[in-house]
Amino acid sequence: MASSVANGGGGHDALRFYLTKTAQFVIVLATTLLGLVAVTFFIGRVVPIDPVIAIVGDRAPAHVYERARQELGLDLPLIQQFWIYLKKAATGDFGNSVLTTNPVMTDIANAFPATLELATLGTLIGVILGIPLGILAAVKRGSFIDQFVRVLGLAGYSIPIFWLGLMGLLVFYAKLGWVAGPGRIDVTYSYLYTPVTNIVLLDTAMQGQWDAFWDAVSHIILPACLLGYFSLAYISRMTRSFMLNELAQEYVIAARVKGLSEMRVIWRHALRNAAVPLVTVIALSYANLLEGSVLTETIFAWPGLGQYITNSLQNADMNAVLGGTLVIGAVFVLLNLVSDLLYRLLDPRTR
Amino acid sequence: MTKPLLDVEDLRVRFHLRTGTVEAVRGVSFQLGRERLGIVGESGSGKSQTGRAILGLTPPPGEVTAQRLAFDGIDLLTASKRTLRTLRGGRISMVMQDPKYSLNPVMTIGEQIIEAYKAHAKAGRNEARDKALAMLEAVKMRDPQRVFSLYPHEVSGGMGQRAMIAMMLVTDPDLLIADEPTSALDVTVSMEVLRILDELVSERGMGLIFISHDLKLVSSFCDRVLVMYAGRVVEELEAKNLREAKHPYTQGLMRCLPTLADDVRPLPTLNRDPAWAL
Amino acid sequence: ATPPDTLVEAWKLDEIISLDPAELFEFTASEIAGNTYERLIGFDLKDVSKIHGEVAESWTVSPDGKTLTFKIRQGKKFASGNPLTAEDVAFSLQRAVILDKSPAFIIGQFGFTKDNVKDKIKQTGPYEFTMELDKPYAPTFVLYCLTSSVASVVDKKLVMQNEKDGDMGYNWLKTKYAGSGPFTIRDWKANEVVVLERNPNYEKPTPLARVIYRHIKETATQRLLLEKGDVDVARNLNPEEMAAVSKNPDIKTNSGVKGGVWYVGLNQKNPNLAKPEVREALKYLVDYSAISDTIMKNQAEVHQTFLPKGFLGAIDDKPYKLDVAKAKDLLTKAGLPNGFSMTMDVRSNSESASIAQAIQQTFAQAGVKLELIPGDGKQVLTKYRARQHDSVIYRWGADYQDPNTNADTFAANDDNSDNAKAKPLTWRNAWDPGPLTAKTRAAVTEQDPEKRAAMYQELQKAVLKDGPFIIMMQEIEVMAMRKNVEGVIIGPSFDTNFVSQAKKN
Amino acid sequence: MLDIQNLQVVFGTGRLRVDAVKNVSFHVEPGAAYGLVGESGSGKSTVLRAICGLAPITAGRVRVDGAAVTTPRGKAFYRTVQMVFQDPYASLHPRHTVDRTLAEPLSIHGEKDAEARILQALREVGLGPSFRFRYPHQLSGGQRQRIAIARALILRPKVLLLDEPTSALDASVQAEILNLLDDLRRRLGLTYILVSHDLAVVAHLCERLLVMRHGEAVEETTSVALRSGAASNDYTQSLIHASQGFTRAVRPSTQALAG
Amino acid sequence: MTGAPLPLASEPSGMRGWLLSAEPNSRWQARLGRFYLGWRAFTRNPLAVIGLGIILMLILVAVFADVIAPYSPVAGGDLRTQRLLPPSGTYWFGTDDQARDIFSRVIHGSRITLFVVVLVALIATPIGLLVGTVSGYLGGWVDTVLMRITDIFLAFPRLILALAFVAALGPGIENAIIAIAITSWPPYARIARAETMMIRNSDFIAAVKLQGASTPRIILGHVVPLCLSSLIVRVTLDMAGIILTAAGLGFLGLGAQPPMPEWGAMVATGRNYLIDQWWVAAMPGLAIFVVSLGFNLLGDGLRDVLDPKAAK
Ligand SMILES: Nc1ncnc2c1ncn2[C@@H]1O[C@H](COP(=O)(O)OP(=O)(O)OP(=O)(O)O)[C@@H](O)[C@H]1O
Ligand SMILES: Nc1ncnc2c1ncn2[C@@H]1O[C@H](COP(=O)(O)OP(=O)(O)OP(=O)(O)O)[C@@H](O)[C@H]1O
Ligand SMILES: [Mg+2]
Ligand SMILES: [Mg+2]
């Protein structure tokens, strides 16, 4: 999405350039979020689930039901409800979740770090393994290793994640006992540290609870590897295709003409260039992991955002759904921005 | 002339493709001393592939064979990868056609020159830097300091081409292959570039293979010319004698150009004789 | 592995929305309340007809049957250290009525309203209070209602300390604890965990220091955790998983009959289903025993009347079994010899989906084409409550241990119009039970338990014969647990699964 | 036929502003051929593109056949003026056969008799009917340029704008195309505007020419003057000089003409 | 290229020669020739051929499902004796919890899968293509507005949007398809836009403009065909994702209705028996895997043939 602008200009111009960029970004963020809210909000209202039941339950007498309905403001016209929601949302108040009774933001502050932790680790695994594999496949195009990477990647695209997840648990947890089971940390350790960031690995490490830390590691490793595998599948394939593209460029031949070693040609020259579009791919795959880990979270009893939103949706807990969607939307836009910035950093042509 | 710098005999480059095998270069032989050798021919006649085969940079499906392919007595066909690497860029260099594509877009020009230098000379960062700057100056760059830290997209085609030359000459090679170094440039700029190459040959005693499709240019710039057609050398002659070429192909090429000097109408066109390709 | 003094249960916890006894109504929250709060009255888990005082020491009923006087046990203390007195008990009941949340009707149905409850439920001494009813209800009915979790005793002092804007501590107690039960609630993280901890002030300290309920949605995950010993009890295993783990020498299973029944509701707005012959024919088109022996093995047993076993007056008649020929006869009589088409709303991802598919098969044998419409729990419910279904497969759980809870919904319908206030199951299926409504109302005030039981038997038979409900099975709850766990009690209702005496060897 | 007065073309605004053409005027008689020469980026192509509406006219006037052009150009304009592009590899749709490429203008303008006219157009540019169903990748560069010319001619325009029609081609092919253009002009009475950086090509085809630099007109001259080496302007001189090939020492350009 | 043709080692002749002729005599021959060249490029990639084989198999199986399947895909057997039987000579893939033959269900499920895949492709591709090309060709505020909308749909958690749509429209395979289609067009729009931006300034577009072609004509006749190939490649590569999303919806109970033998729904049921009665989930899971793999391999192969940039 990077809109490239010709370079040059003095400090004043550069300043103005960044100001326009910032303004543009704010507008993009605002309109995207507004669109997200609007779409979610109206979808939420046409969903044929009565949100009142979620609060009062099935057995509630009629008057209890009516009162709850009014408290939710469901008797107002749709547009008015939306307006009220927007006004509150602007002040950071996304209402309370019906299901958990907490303010939605509190819930998200709890659930999001769990997802973040998992997705980040997953992406790291995907990047660390996926890029070298992709490079190898590109350099040895058509060889056994290339086919292997291709099939590995294709399998990653095609295997249902819940199947792989359960099989992973069965083998590595139940049979082999190499990793800990579902959940973020064992109950024994869960009260040894105080949640600060809600990212268990960080919290335990910062508080020096190393036993708890290692326990958390052994819990996260399997789901993270699983997500990592899916991200690896994507990243390695994209790396391969970008590298093939770069390796066919004239400047690579020029680098060889200079007498550089093949390693240097590949890593310093081709990869540096392939890294530019790769950044976008990694950001995208990261965003996908952040939003798409619903099933993984279910299987690994991971109290993350994906589960939270799905669960809320099924219970017509619209405040929670809206809040969660907004957060994911914002993350998406933010990741876009970050990859945009990195893009600029890596590619002098867009500076 | 003593021992030739480059000795090529029966060089062949084949590409095995789906549609069959294409022989891009078919039995080219020549010897090169410390002189300017031009290779001309129309598009697809195998000029570039000849140049690349010498450096061992024929792209993947290609296959290179030759009776003899020796540089300064070193057999390039049997040389180890390591030897080839030290030769490449060190003693043989190549200036490529289009600076827009041949310079790494994400590295500054200075970095790329330094990299070339350090690949062959044990030198510290500062020494390499000085050398690079000196080189930029040698190719008549107006503000070497500034150009040093520019990225390829920030310089014009002419500057890029000169930077490319600087990069390829920083190691003081004995042989330079220049593959259409000026065809992407304006007439006025290309004259400047040629002047630089010319000086290098006459002052350093470097061997130069100058690939071009511009007969007029080659005849005025080089000492000796190889005329290629369909992968073969159809004629080899002194540049100044190009007007007296024997081969009908060379003659045709010379005549079909419009000139300011006289107004021929219609222009003579080339009637290809299948026999030329044999 | 789990610590020796801690019991860890894997359970689907995502339905908890409140821990306030005046509000909580879901199975999970009720069970937690049962282990952490004390109620006025309790019943014998083996024989539900035997009632005893829990916080109440004794009670008397006035001759006109309208006033009950309760004496409270002395010397009890809340977990907070505050003493438990009649003031707390009266406050708890009043609070439930005033807050008027979903379960409030269980107490409210005796004529208490926001405005009069402070007069009708009165503290008359430090350890004595009275309840004044609007009608002379059957005393057993009243007492059974007081066994439900809405009658839990909360710590008035503590709750009122946390009152805000006259909410009687509602917003605080939603997530906190103010009781006197064997365990205290230490922590609740929505969709993640509920942690109970031993209440040191409880008269009989629990063997376990801690009980942890972990939210595990996937049953397969629950199973793996159990087999690996990372949880002690798995609550939601399906029949196959149950069968598999029971082969494991480290694991045992415990089961108990529950008050829930599985039924198919037939909407009487559908002209075909409104024909009595069709209703009866469909009752002959379900393979009750095959379903309960396979799909619902260990989860339910065949039961066809609306009162679950163990309830006052419950009968266990099972007149229906799969009989395609008879069903075809009945359909022919109804003028539908070639069968007909109908839909059934089903909650996806639950046992009901499997049962529904089995029913679909047997219906088809008599030419009844059943189209299943899967939906989310809440989605199916919304449709059901709007009477937009043809048929629906659902489970009904008793709200309290008195037969009225089921009779009221299966056999009575005061107003069958579209905008009726009350929405019992009869209404939802647009069925007017005629004289049965009056009989149900009469049974509630019948003072003689035997006569009362007979009335309910009559009601059950009538609904069994003619009602728009294919009642199929009564629920069984099975817990799979590690061998070393002992003393986990599975009571007859969902709030009587007790862990207070559980221990691990 | 074609009259350009004070043409100015500006791209972008502010920091990105490029003054591609500044105040250029020239006039072309019907049936004449007019050349534009100059170094890369001097605005030659932009003048052509401005005439036919592919670049904005910021100021100035363009008259075709006595009438000022409208924006957007009407269909009648396109029947009068057509253009041939520099790169024969980029100017043909890679997925369309020659047949489809040539049929397109006819169908846009609702012309009948497409069949015959396509064959005739192919004949005119010296290609046989066997080329009709080929795809561009099955054609050589010279053949492609012929197709591009055929496409431009099929609507029978009066003016042909030629943007370096031979610079991407080999010398021998260039000769063929130049001969073709020469021939067509004579037979069809076309008016040409030819852009090239090769002075010899311009001199070969055109009677008059305009030398451009940095978007400005440097001088207008004739090919006769060019051949005699008479150029009043230094820049034109240096262009003439450079087109003679490489010279070791910098010498006055007139001497090189003999070689 | 001009110049002398380089001699080929062997000249094509006969049928091949006719197809590869540099001088086709008719539109048909030209088209067939192109197709043949593509086909040859395609068949040089054995994995792609395998992929094509799988897809053809899928189509055949779907067409002849009635003939192939030994049992009814919906009617179950005796719950007491035929339930959850492991794979055997009678029941090749075993039976499920309703005592139905899994093999027959998988066979019949191919129809649904094919239906999903084809319909999603037919809905999402044109939307994406149209939005992308219009946005890329016209630019300006049209581009801004369309791309903002695309962004919104792109930033939406995909499964959530699908879930919401299914919830709004009611469960069922058709609605699941619409939901998936609605969530899958944005990337296509982006690709088409990028492609369009690259070609909109090219000479051949300028050339048709100079012939007075209208904007719709240029977009439909000239821009769309060029975007199509990279889009087709992308769509084929996405097929696996589409099947899996459909499966995901089925998994959440929002896709096909029971007893429809939709693979995703079957896997979802099988999840309950995953550890001991592995075949219930594994068989339809394997089917999903094989078909996705087929589409992916095919897409990969097509990329080499159709996408001129990727071809080397
Ligand atoms: N990678 C390759 N695969 C197949 N054929 C190739 C490959 N590279 C070059 N060729 C063929 O080899 C022949 C010679 O190519 P070469 O690049 O040497 O031509 P050239 O004389 O440099 O032409 P130009 O003036 O256009 O650069 C051409 O016919 C070309 O098609
Ligand atoms: N669409 C455009 N937007 C911005 N600047 C442009 C655009 N088109 C051309 N220019 C600029 O206008 C100037 C003149 O370009 P033009 O293409 O007319 O040059 P030219 O003389 O044809 O050069 P060449 O010989 O390289 O074709 C150049 O600086 C170019 O960068
Ligand atoms: Mg070349
Ligand atoms: Mg130009």
From TrEMBL, chain A:
PROSITE patterns: ABC_TM1 (PS50928). Its main location: membrane. Residues 112-343 form the ABC transmembrane type-1 domain. Keywords: Cell membrane, Membrane, Transmembrane, Transmembrane helix, Transport. GO terms for molecular function: dipeptide transmembrane transporter activity. It is found in: Cell membrane. The keyword Membrane applies. CDD domains: TM_PBP2. GO terms for cellular component: plasma membrane. Pfam families: BPD_transp_1, BPD_transp_1_N. Belongs to the binding-protein-dependent transport system permease family. This is ABC transporter permease. It comes from Microvirga aerilata.
TrEMBL record, chain B:
Keywords: ATP-binding, Cell membrane, Membrane, Nucleotide-binding, Transport. InterPro entries: AAA+_ATPase (IPR003593), ABC_Ni/Peptide_Import (IPR050388), ABC_transporter-like_ATP-bd (IPR003439), P-loop_NTPase (IPR027417). It is found in: Cell inner membrane. GO terms for cellular component: plasma membrane. GO terms for molecular function: ATP binding; ATP hydrolysis activity. It is a peripheral membrane protein. The keyword Transmembrane helix does not apply. Residues 6-255 form the ABC transporter domain. One of its GO terms (biological process) is transmembrane transport. It comes from the Bacteria. Pfam families: ABC_tran. Belongs to the ABC transporter superfamily. This is ABC transporter ATP-binding protein. It comes from Microvirga aerilata.
UniProtKB/TrEMBL annotation, chain D:
Keywords: ATP-binding, Cell inner membrane, Cell membrane, Membrane, Nucleotide-binding, Translocase, Transport. It catalyses: glutathione(out) + ATP + H2O = glutathione(in) + ADP + phosphate + H(+). InterPro entries: AAA+_ATPase, ABC_transp_ATP-bind, ABC_transporter-like_ATP-bd, ABC_transporter-like_CS, P-loop_NTPase. Its EC number is 7.4.2.10. GO terms for cellular component: plasma membrane. It is a peripheral membrane protein. Its main location: membrane. GO terms for biological process: transmembrane transport. CDD domains: ABC_NikE_OppD_transporters. Residues 2-239 form the ABC transporter domain. It is an enzyme of class 7 (translocase). One of its GO terms (molecular function) is ATP hydrolysis activity. PROSITE patterns: ABC_TRANSPORTER_1 (PS00211), ABC_TRANSPORTER_2 (PS50893). The keyword Nucleotide-binding applies. It is found in: Cell inner membrane; Membrane. Belongs to the ABC transporter superfamily. Glutathione importer (TC 3.A.1.5.11) family. The complex is composed of two ATP-binding proteins (GsiA), two transmembrane proteins (GsiC and GsiD) and a solute-binding protein (GsiB). Part of the ABC transporter complex GsiABCD involved in glutathione import. Responsible for energy coupling to the transport system. This is Glutathione import ATP-binding protein GsiA. It comes from Microvirga aerilata. The lineage of its organism: Bacteria, Pseudomonadati, Pseudomonadota, Alphaproteobacteria, Hyphomicrobiales.
UniProtKB/TrEMBL annotation, chain E:
Pfam families: BPD_transp_1 (PF00528), OppC_N (PF12911). Belongs to the binding-protein-dependent transport system permease family. It is a multi-pass membrane protein. It comes from the Bacteria. InterPro entries: BP-dependent_transpt_permease (IPR050366), MetI-like (IPR000515), MetI-like_sf (IPR035906), OppC_N (IPR025966). PROSITE patterns: ABC_TM1. Its main location: membrane. It comes from Microvirga aerilata. One of its GO terms (cellular component) is plasma membrane. This is ABC transporter permease. One of its GO terms (biological process) is peptide transport. It is found in: Cell membrane. Keywords: Cell membrane, Membrane, Peptide transport, Protein transport, Transmembrane, Transmembrane helix, Transport. The chain crosses the membrane at residues 47-69, 112-139, 159-183, 239-258, 278-299. Residues 110-299 form the ABC transmembrane type-1 domain.
